[in-house]
Design brief:
This is Putative redox protein. The chain is an alpha+beta fold and 140 residues long. The protein has 3 helices and 6 strands.
Length: 140
């Protein structure tokens, strides 16, 4: 069984530094409205980034295996928070944007669906607490 370990260290005020198992470091901070200086990623937004990164890695790998011609690819994720504390995401929308002159829409849809339904562990975690909606956009 694989275990991931991170260390998150307080840097003063509302700022933290967190390591990744690879050794990379990210900054986490609250916004000014919550006593921080906004010098890092917000924890909840970081969860949305993790979701986009997880599915993005899957899709990028599948695009390569399928030898798909894509000029650019981006994922936009929005999360709707509950009104009550603790505020959690209850609705999440994941939009996949593919750019290129020769997009194979059928194969790209298959790549996205494989990530969403089979490979992306973060997507599966999100489904435990939120309604997740997916949409694909092709920009030729």
């Amino acid at each position: 069984m694989e275990t991931h370990n991170i260390t998150t260290t307080w840097k003063g005020n509302m700022q933290f530094e967190s390591t990744n198992p690879s050794g990379d470091v990210i900054s986490i901070d609250a916004g000014p409205e919550n006593g921080g200086e906004g010098k890092g990623l917000r924890p909840k937004a970081l969860m949305l980034s993790a979701l986009a990164g997880c599915t993005g890695l899957d899709v990028a790998s599948l695009m390569e295996k399928m030898k798909l011609e894509v000029t650019d690819f981006k994922i936009e994720v929005s999360g709707e928070l509950t009104e009550e504390h603790p505020k959690t995401y209850h609705k999440v929308k994941v939009d996949y944007h593919f750019y290129g002159n020769n997009l194979d829409e059928k194969k790209l849809e298959k790549a996205v669906n494989l990530s969403v339904e089979k490979y992306c562990g973060v997507m599966e975690m999100f489904r435990q607490f939120a309604k997740v909606e997916i949409e694909i956009f092709y920009h030729n």
